[in-house]
Design goal:
Layout lengths: L3 E5 L3 H13 L3 E5 L2 H10 L4 E5 L7 H8 L7 E5 L2 H9 L6 E4 L4 H17 L10 E4 L2 E4 L4 E4 L2 E3 L3 H11 L8 H8 L8 H15 L9 E4 L3 E4 L3
Parallel strand pairs: 1-2, 1-3, 3-4, 4-5
Antiparallel strand pairs: 6-7, 7-8, 8-9, 10-11
Helix pairs in contact: 2-3, 6-8
Keywords: DNA-binding, Phosphoprotein, Transcription, Transcription regulation, Two-component regulatory system
Organism: Paenibacillus pini JCM 16418
Protein name: DNA-binding response regulator
Length: 231
């Protein structure tokens, strides 16, 4: 099955280079040169991935991302020269899955594209009702009974540790800021007390990771937050 990608890039030279290379890699590319055209294309057919430049004419990349996230969970890979825009899209809950900064190599871009598509097909969880058991690598969690096992051995997690792990397993493509984690797990307003989250995250990693100092299951994105690891 051919993977369809919506490429949203206003720079013709970059767009043509990316389209040509990814086409040779076996992907089907639809190229939109501004946010307005991108929304039109997105509404006309399904896509497996969106490659999104943030600095766009007519409708910005951020506004495009907000609009499609109202009813779509398609993976979005940001391509941007502005770190601040990337930080916003990843950290403020707008639903971007990954990013690559300009200038970039086509080899790196292709690797990021393939990883994003792989994640989207690997973690398939029904939206209406969570799967009874969600598994990633050697770790599995029964969502009904809230039990966690690793290599078939049950792990003893506290209530907060279970809620933390459940949050990541049910949102495998999402990057969470500490504020979002606190709001979701503690169900309270966040006042910048990072120590509470740091302590619980450290204890959770001690129980689920082979090497807590080099975590595989829950990755840290420095300056942004956390996300589920890739396997």
């Amino acid at each position: 099955m051919t993977v369809s990608i919506l490429l949203v890039e206003d720079d013709s030279s970059i767009g043509e280079m990316v389209e040509s290379y990814l086409t040779m890699e076996g992907f089907r590319i639809v190229h939109a040169k501004d946010g307005e055209e991108a929304l039109k294309r997105f509404s006309e057919e399904p896509f497996d991935l969106v490659l999104l430049d943030m600095m766009l004419p007519k409708i910005s990349g951020m506004d495009f991302l907000k609009k499609i996230r109202q009813n779509s969970h398609v993976p979005v890979l940001i391509v941007s020269a502005k770190d601040s825009e990337v930080d916003k899209a990843l950290g403020l809950g707008f639903g971007a899955d990954d990013y690559i900064t300009k200038p970039f190599s086509m080899i790196e871009l292709t690797a990021r594209v393939k990883a994003a598509v792989r994640r989207a097909t690997h973690y398939i969880i029904p939206q209406e009702k969570p799967a009874q058991v969600v598994q990633i690598h050697q770790l599995s969690m029964d969502m009904d009974n809230l039990t966690v096992s690793k290599n078939g051995v049950e792990l003893k997690l506290t209530a907060k540790e279970l809620q933390l792990l459940k949050l990541f397993l049910l949102n495998p493509k999402k990057v969470f800021t500490k504020q979002q984690i606190f709001n979701s797990v503690w169900n309270d307003d966040y006042f910048g007390d990072e120590n509470v989250i740091n302590v619980h995250m450290s204890r959770l990693r001690e129980k689920i990771e082979d090497n807590p100092s080099e975590p595989m299951y829950i990755k840290t994105l420095w300056g942004i937050g956390y996300r589920l690891g890739e396997f």
